[in-house]
Amino acid sequence: MTIELPINARILVVALRRLGDVLLTTPLIRSLKQAYPDATIEALVFAGTEGILVGNPDLAGTIVIAARPTKRESLTLIRRLWRHYDLAISTQTGDRPTGFAWAAGRTRIGMVEGAGFMARLKQRMLAHSVVTDPELHRVADLLRIADALGIPQAEELVPPAGAVRPDLRPDRPYAVIHAVPMFRYKRWTDDGWRALAAGLTARGLAVVATGGPSEGDRQYLDKLWGAGPEVRRLDGVLTWPELAALIGGAQVYVGPDTSVTHLAAAAGAPTVALYGPTDPRLFGPWPIGGLVDPWVAAGTIQRRGNVWLVQNPLPCLPCQQEGCERHRESYSQCLDELSAAQVLGAVDQALARAVARASSAQG
Question: Does 309 map to a domain?
Answer without folding.
Answer: yes
